Structures are given as C-alpha cells and as structure tokens.
Amino acid sequence: METRDTEAAFRWIVGLFKKHQIPFQIAGGFAARAYGVQRELHDIDFDIPEADFEKILPEVRPYIIHGPTQYKDDHWDLILLTLSYGGQRIDISGAYDAKKFDETSQTWVSARVDLKNFQLMEIYGVEVPLILKATLIEYKKKLNREVDRVDVEELEKTL
Fold first, then answer.
1. Which residues contact residue 57 at a Cβ distance below 8 angstroms, ignoring those fewer than 6 apart?
2. Cis peptide bond upstream of 62, omega within 30
3. Which phi and psi angles does 157 have, rounded to 5°?
4. Dihedral of CA 77/68/44/40: which sign?
5. Whole-angstrom distance, CA of residue 75 vs CA of residue 139
6. For 95-116, b where at least 16 C-beta lie within 10 A, e where not — what string?
7. Is this model's pTM higher than 0.70 or not?
8. What is the pLDDT of residues 32-68, one digit of tens each?
C-alpha cells in the first residue's frame, strides 16, 4: 500500500498558489476534517479561478493524473485538475463555472465559489482560506452522497 504524505502535498500546492498569487479556497472532505469531522481523507479539494490553471501547469505537469479538462459525473460538472503528490490525491476545481447536481430538486445548479468569502484557518502551520462551514454543509446536503451525509451530521454537531 502506498503511503501518503498529506502535509507535504498540502504545503507544496498551497505554496504554488501563493507563489503565483492565485486565489483559492479549500473545500470538500479536507475542509470538513479541518472543521472536526473524523473520517478518512480521500483527497484535498481546492477551488481556483478557471483562468489560473495555466499559471501552475508547468510546475504540476509531472504530477497530473487528469486534466485540466471539463469533468462531468453524476454529481459535478466543472473544470478539474487531479494531481498525485507524495501519494496524496489533490483535486483542483474551477471556482466560477462549476455546477453540481442537487439531489433534492433533481436539477443541475450553480456551484460558483465566492473566493472572497471564507474562514481563515491554520493547517500544518499555514494560514489558509476554507469554505465557510455553513456553505460546506449546504453544498454537502445538496449533493447528498453517503459521505456527504456523514460529514453533514458531524458538522452540524459543531454549529
């Protein structure tokens, strides 16, 4: 089994975002864990402006698994770049043009990220912007996958 160096991957990609002055926000399961959810981490999710993927491509190219291209599955329709660094998967999504499938209404809805509205939190000694907890809960409720329901239950205990 491959070992993961989540801290090294986190520091590396955040360092690239800061070096290239790319606004970003941490979302998904990594954000849920930062807010106290106790489940195994699958990947680290970041949102950045679609126009900024080009800035980091030369430095991330050796680590690319997928993209950056349009990605669509049952839950998401967005620009996605997937990397593997130190055995840790990193998903970088476009922040402005993304859509998610709302299980409640059975429709595709905007998943536009407000990169100016976030919670600053220190992770691995680095201050970073996280999706607001209420926003994270709202989008996980709409996605309504099993992992999202688990996260929502734990996140709502800490409100």
1. 68
2. no
3. -70, -25
4. positive
5. 11
6. bbebbbbbeeeeeeeebebebe
7. yes
8. 999 999 888 889 999 999 999 999 999 999 999 999 9
Distance, in Å, from the CA atom of 124 to the CA atom of 59, rounded to the nearest integer, reads: 22
Torsion, Cα 92 97 98 101, to 10 degrees, reads: -170
Locate 20 and state its tokens.
């290239």
Tokens of 91: 């998903």
Axis crossing angle, helix 146-157 with helix 133-143, rounded to the nearest 10: 150
Amino acid letter, 31 = A
Residues in the chain: 159
- E strand or H helix that includes residue 79: strand 76-85
Helices assigned H by DSSP within the chain: 6-19, 28-34, 53-60, 133-143, 146-157
- Encode pLDDT of 126-151 as tens digits: 999 999 999 999 888 887 788 888 88
Cα 28 to Cα 55, 56, 152: the distances in Å are 23, 21, 11
Angle at 15 between CA 49 and CA 131, to 5 degrees: 50
Cα–Cα distance list, 72 to 40, 89, 129, 152 (Å)? 24, 18, 26, 23
Paired tokens of 156 = 């709502």
